Amino acid sequence: MYLAADSLDDLLFKVYKQILARGTAIKPSKGDARETSGMLLKLSAPRVRLSRSESRGLLFSCLGELLWILAGSNRLDFIQHYIPRYDEFSDDKKTIYGAYGPRLFGKTPNDQVARVIQLLKDKQDSRQAVLQLFDRTDTLEFHRDVPCTCTLQFMVRDSRLHMLTSMRSNDAWLGLPHDVFTFTMLQELVARSVGIELGEYKHAVGSLHLYDEHHDKALQFLDEGWQTHRPMPPMPKSDPWVAVKGLVDFEKKVRTSHGSIPTPPATMDPYWEDLATLLTIHKAGLVPNNQPEIRRLKRRIHDDVYSTYIKRRYKLTTDKDQLSIFDGQAALTKETI
């Protein structure tokens, strides 16, 4: 089955509709679910990687998980700062066995991402630019978390970087929105590193499933109807890895801070400064009734694409604050994607 869309929300809409209507009942170890197998999803505009919906607008947890991966970390306390339930997947309550960070960004010569970037710089037509996550040794003994992602493949065609993710299994409710965000951000990082434009994103899944506990939530998502298409801004056109290191370092300062929250360095490009400011907003949001501080930090944001997520999460307004098709030039319609 092949499903294509111009935004994450449109893709999720098609996925949930397909699973609810035609999914096969299965009984995996994590609970009863409905499954569609052999799925291929395409997101033609990878920057429209964040849901604008009430339930799947997961900006802060997506950003936290991305930085956990970019930091090359497998620490449970790191990711729990953003996704508390991750302790369910830890063998020792300290680390996550299947964490992607160490597998992608191991120390030289095991930094797979660096090798792929160099390969594409040397030979753009290469078909060997593949990152491996799932390993044959992962099932030799029991672990609470084994990578669901098998490989990430990058291909330069028509002067654009396309990406194909291959997954053995994917939770359509909890996992898919995070995976699309993380992998399309990685796609854009590699594209900027190679010096070419962003292409299409494709996502192949062996078992794409929706657990029964999320059945009603998926129906509610469908009831929300069509969402506006708001892309994240493009990454600056330069090698991104110095900026990534700065953001990763800043994230640690924010996460481990006590008392006053650090301020993003003035030297940061606005793109990266916005992501850094979002980290400070998340930290401030851990303090009850801290809306005045969150409002102050929100004023530092350059791009208003993030405004909806901040207002909704921290209840800064009384309405849903969901952009409509009448929001003018800030919104991308289906015709302009």
Task: Describe it.
Strands 1, 2, 3, 4, 5, 6 and 7 form a seven-stranded mixed β-sheet that branches. Helix 1 packs across helix 7. The chain folds into two domains: 2-66 and 85-224, Thymidylate Synthase, Chain A, CATH 3.30.572.10; 241-330. The protein has helices spanning 8-22, 59-70, 76-80, 100-104, 112-122, 175-194, 215-224, 241-255, 270-285, 291-298, 307-313, and strands at 2-5, 24-26, 33-43, 130-132, 149-157, 160-171, 197-211. It is built from eleven helices and seven strands. 37% of the residues lie in helices and 17% in strands. The protein is α/β, with parallel strands linked by helices and 337 residues long. The model is unreliable at 318-337 (pLDDT under 50).
If helices are DSSP runs of H or I spanning 4 or more residues, what is the number of helices? 11
CATH superfamily of the largest domain, by name, is Thymidylate synthase/dCMP hydroxymethylase domain
What is the helical fraction, as a range of percent? 25-40%
* Helix-strand pattern: EHEEHHHHEEEHEHHHHH
Described by the principal axes of the CA atoms, the overall outline is globular
The overall average pLDDT, rounded, is 93
CATH topology of the largest domain: Thymidylate Synthase, Chain A
Q: What characterizes the major β-sheet?
A: 7 strands, mixed
Question: Beta-strand level of the residues, as a percent range?
Answer: 15-25%
Low-confidence sequence ranges: 318-337
CATH architecture tag of the largest domain: 2-Layer Sandwich
The structure class reads alpha/beta
In total, the number of domains comes to 2
The oligomeric state is single chain
Radius of gyration: 19 Å
CATH class of the largest domain: Alpha Beta
Number of strands: 7
| Termini gap | 24 Å
